[in-house]
Amino acid sequence: MIRIGTAGTNWITQQLVEALALSQQFTLAGIYSRHSETATAFATKNHAEASYTDYDEMLAQAKLDAVYIASPNSLHFDQAMAAIAKDISVIVEKPAFSNQREMIAFKAALAEHPNVRFFEAARHVHTPNFKAIETALSGLPTVQGASFTYMKYSSRYDKVLAGERPNIFTREFSAGALQDVGVYPIYVAVALFGQPSHVDLFPTLVETGADGKGVAILRYGDFDVTVSFGKTSNAYGLSEIYGLKETITIDSAGELTHVEQRAADGQATDLSQGDLANPMLPEVMDFARVLQAPDDPQNVRDYQRWLQWSLTVNQVLYSLRVSANLSFPADAH
Q1: CB 109 within 8 A of CB 81
Q2: Which ranges carry the Gfo/Idh/MocA-like oxidoreductase N-terminal domain (predicted)?
Q3: How far apart are CA 148 and CA 113, in angstroms?
């Protein structure tokens, strides 16, 4: 069993912990939160071995093989660096790091700890439905572009409208719509098409100075990918990949719960692979097999592919922000 700890006690950590239990590959060895009552309650609810209010103490005492980091974005880098310094593998919630400086520094540190593995928790690109999209894409005679949309109204935007500054809408925490929901379709684009040759971002800022929604253009030589994302409104339209006469349609570039391929006459073939018991279970199973057999040839190939996705997504997100002069305090460190 893989001994794992968590940093963060929000809804996404709860979903991850439930996926860990379903996988039967992990032991929940430690829960970290700054607040004792929160850490204790989360640990009790999920039958964790121990709770901590000091992150370094958890790393030192819980005998971890891995730690899952789902704290505010601006804290990811320091927490991940502290873990690998103790040869503890890290699963970092997307986006893993604030900028290119952090990613480059982390990659260098990772090279100094060859037994450590780093995973960015981009759950949707590990799902059977994503693999169905990859297979359908490989069968298209040509690709003429794509349009990916992911917009979900955030209840925390109500707090922004009330004059508050929730973490997810502040640049101080390396947050905003691009980092929170835009990363999902950006991940799909990078995983399917690779690194774009040029990117542009057109953000709409909210009262906190962070982006609440936006449109990104990723240029791939002879075609473009348009990404629409936001946390201040809802979107219900399909995401699409355009072939010549065929089109791959996706219900949401963030959820990937329903996938179809439409022929020239509009006839649809359902490519969906069924519902998941937990949307994070496929990534948890993928991470477990790499952690348990890191030298297996297929696991090595998969790990290197996921690592390259993470490196490229970080570069694309940073380049998009630069194009729009959208900076974070973390960029100046």
Answers
A1: yes
A2: 2-116
A3: 37
CATH architecture of 2-115: 3-Layer(aba) Sandwich (3.40)
Question: Which runs of consecutive H residues, i.e. helices, occur in 141-251?
Answer: 155-161, 177, 183-193
- Spell out the residues 6+ positions from residue 70 whose beta carbon is closer than 8 angstroms to its own: 6, 7, 8, 10, 12, 13, 16, 93, 121
Alpha-carbon gap, residue 8 to 177, rounded angstroms:
20
Quote the tokens at residue 66: 């891995």
Global pTM?
0.96
pLDDT in single tens digits along all 333 residues of the chain:
999 999 999 999 999 999 999 999 999 999 999 999 999 999 999 999 999 999 999 999 999 999 999 999 999 999 999 999 999 999 999 999 999 999 999 999 999 999 999 999 999 999 999 999 999 999 999 999 999 999 999 999 999 999 999 999 999 999 999 999 999 999 999 999 999 999 999 999 999 999 999 999 999 999 999 999 999 999 999 999 999 999 999 999 999 999 999 999 999 999 999 999 999 999 999 999 999 999 999 999 999 999 999 999 999 999 999 999 999 999 997
Burial of residue 322 (CB within 10 Å: 0-12, 13-18, 19+) is: middle
For residue 240, the one-letter residue type is: E
Q: Which helix (H) or strand (E) holds 12?
A: helix 11-23
Domain segments of the chain as ranges: 2-115, 127-280+314-332
